[in-house]
Recover the amino acids of this structure.
C-alpha cells in the first residue's frame, strides 16, 4: 500500500501558465524524484522550469534546505532541454561535464525556477548555462554550466 505524499505548494501565478510542450520535454521532466516539475517556457532562447517545494526534496531537515543532489539534477534536466531546443529533432545529447556552483543555502519554500540557455553550439558539443532562483527572490542560489555531446 502506497503512503500518501504531502501536498506540493504551487503559487497561483505558476499554475496553468505553460502551453503544450513537445513529448520529449514531458518525458525528460517525468521523474518521481522531482514531483511536480513543470516547464514554464521553451523557445529559441532556452527553457524555464518550475520545481514546486516538496518535503522529499529537503536534504537538511534541521534547516529545511533543499538537497544539493536535487539542485544538480534540476540543472542537468534544464541544460539538456535547452540544448535540445536549438538542435534538430532527430538529435539527442549526452552530458560531458556539469559544473555546479552553490551560491547560497536553498530553502525553496515557494518553489524553484531554473532557466537554461544554450550559448554556443558546435558541430559536436552544446555549451549551456543555467541558473536556479527561489521563486520569491531575484538572486540566483545555484549556477551551472554544462557541455553536452551531440548524439545524432
Amino acid at each position: 500500500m502506497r503512503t500518501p505524499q504531502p501536498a506540493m505548494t504551487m503559487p497561483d501565478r505558476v499554475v496553468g501558465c505553460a502551453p503544450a510542450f513537445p513529448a520529449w520535454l514531458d518525458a525528460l521532466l517525468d521523474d518521481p524524484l522531482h514531483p511536480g516539475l513543470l516547464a514554464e517556457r521553451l523557445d529559441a532562447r532556452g527553457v524555464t522550469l518550475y520545481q514546486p517545494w516538496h518535503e522529499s526534496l529537503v536534504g537538511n531537515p534541521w534547516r529545511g534546505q533543499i538537497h544539493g543532489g536535487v539542485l544538480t539534477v534540476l540543472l542537468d534536466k534544464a541544460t539538456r532541454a535547452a540544448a535540445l531546443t536549438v538542435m534538430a529533432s532527430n538529435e539527442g545529447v549526452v552530458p560531458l561535464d556539469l559544473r555546479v556552483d552553490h551560491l547560497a543555502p536553498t530553502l525553496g519554500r515557494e518553489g524553484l525556477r531554473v532557466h537554461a540557455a544554450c550559448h554556443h553550439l558546435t558541430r559536436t558539443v552544446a555549451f549551456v548555462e543555467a541558473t536556479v532562483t527561489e521563486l520569491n527572490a531575484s538572486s540566483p542560489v545555484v549556477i551551472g554550466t554544462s557541455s553536452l555531446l551531440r548524439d545524432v
Summary: The radius of gyration is 15 Å.
